[in-house]
Design a protein that fits this description.
Chain lengths: 274, 307
Amino acid sequence: MRLSLTKRFLTNLAILTVSAVWLIPLIWTVSTAFRPERDLLNPIWWFPTRPTLENFKAAWEMAPFGLYYINTTILVLGILAVQMFTITFAGYAFARLKFPGRDSIFGLFLLQMMVPGSALLLPNYITMKNLHLIDHRLAMMLPYFASAIGTLLMRQAFKQVPIELDDAAKIDGCRWHQLLWYVYLPAAKPTLVAFSIVSISAHWNEFLWPLIVTNSQNIRPLTVGLALFTQMSETGAQWPAITAATLLVVFPLILLFLLFQRQFVSSFLRSGIK
Amino acid sequence: MAIQPAAPTATRPRSASPRLGRWAGPYALLLPSIVILVLFTVWPMLLAAWQSLFRMNLATPVPRFNGLGNYAVLFADPVFWKVVGNTLIFAATTAFPSIALALALALLVNNKVRTSWLGRTAIFYPALLPAVSAASIWLFMYTPTYGLVTRFLTYFGLSNTMNVLGDAHWAMPAIIVMSVWKQAGFYMVFYLAALQGLPQDVHEAAIVEGATGWQEFRGITFPLLGPTTLFLSMSGILSGLQLADPLYIMTKGGPDNATSTIIFYLYQKAFGSWDQGVASALSVMLIVLFLAIGLFHYGYLDKKVHY
C-alpha cells in the first residue's frame, strides 16, 4: 500500500532521525579513533581534520589483538564444529527414534534452556578446576558442546523429511550414517546455516565465562582482551587508543553483517521462533 | 551381518531395522550431548546446592557445615537486597521500553519507503556487538569532559566535569539507555517478521469498515502480535536479569553498588572475595529463579497464548 507523498516524506524523515541517533555512538567512536590524541577536545566535527592511524598502531602494540582474533576464531569454530555433530545426532534421535526414557532425556535438554550458564558460573568453574582444564581452550568450549536449542531446531528440520524417504533408503541398505548424510542433513541445511550464525555470534560475544576460566593472555578471546585493555588504560584514559581497540573488535562483525544481512536476521528469527 | 541391538529394550524401536547393520542406537547418538548436559547443567546445580550449605571462604580453609547459614548471611546483607532490587528494576526498565520501542520502530520501518533498509540496519547493528564493546563505546560517551553525552549535556548548562557513571542516581539510567539502544533492534526484527506475516484480509476488512490507523492497531494488529510480544517479553526479562558484562567495563557495580546486579555480585563474591559458600547460595537462588520462570513459561504460558 503506497503512502501519500507527505506521509512518505514524514516517514523517511522519522527513519533518518532514528537511524542517526542509533548510529551516533558508532560514528563518534570511529571519529575519535581516527583523530590524533591532541585533537580530542576539538569541537565535535564528525570528520577529523587530521586523520591518523596512530591510535590503531598504539592499540595493536599495547595488547595482542591479532592473538585475540585468532583465539576468538578458534573458540567459535571449535564450539560450532562439535555442535554440528551433537545437534545432528541428538536431533535425529528425537525426531525419528522411539526409546524408553525419551521424555526424561528431552527434559534434560529443556533444563539447559531454562537455566542459563551465568547462574552456574561458580560450580562449572570448580568442575573445570577438578578436570585440570583451567586456562585451557577446552574450558571455554566444553560446556557448549551440547546445545539444546540446536538440537530442537534440528529435530524440527528432520521431522520435515518424509518418512517414506527414510524407509526407501533403508530398503536400499543404507547404514545410519549414510542415512543422516544423504537423506536428513540436506533437508536441514538452512537450519544449520541459521544455527551456525547464531552460535558464532553468541560465542564471539561471550565474556564472563572466558574471563573466569582463563588466566593467561595466549588463549584469551577478543572480548576479554578488550575489557582488560580498557581497564588497563583507566589511569591514563587513553581514549583514542581505546576507541581504536573497540573498532578493531567490532569492525569485522559489522562488515560481515552488512554483507550477510539477510542471513543474519533470518537466522535469529528462525532460532527464536521454535 | 551380525545384528547388535545396542538399545536395551524389549522391542526394537520401529525405525531401527536390522538391515542397518551396526546400528548405534539412540542412546549412542544422544550420549555425547547427555554427558555434556549432565556435567555442565545438572551436576553444577547439585554442586551449588551442596556447597551452599557449607561455610567456605578464605577465612575457613576447611569447609564447615553451616546449614542455611549462608542464606541467612545473604538475607541479612543490605547489599544483597540492593542488588536484587537493581536487577529487577533493570530487567523491567530495559525489557518493556525496548519492546515498546521495537514495536514502534517496526511499524515505522515496515513501510515501503526508501530509507527502510537504512532504518533496519542502523537500529539492528548494536544487537550484534559484544556487550563489552557496546559498553566500551558508551563508557567513552559518558566520560567527563571528553564524552559525547557529557559535551551534549553542557549545552543544557550542566558542568562538563560531571561524571554520569559516578553518580548514584544517574549511573543506572545511563546503563539502561545503553541497553535499550543495544536491544531494541533485536526485538524489532521479530516484530517486523511478525508484521509481514499478518493476514492481509483482516487488514482489508478493517479499511472497508473505515477503521482508523490507531483503531486497527489496537483492535487487530496488536492482539495478533500477542505471541511475539509474549516471546520477546520473556526473552527481554531473562536477559535483563543476567546483566553483568557492561558493569565490568563501566562501573564495576558502583558507585556504592548502585548498578550492581545479581550476576555481577555473584562474580564478585565467587571470584573476587572467593567466598564460595555464599556464592553457592547465591547461585542456588538464581537457579531456582530461572527454573521457576522456565517452568512458568513452558508449563503454563505456552498453553495460554492463542494463535
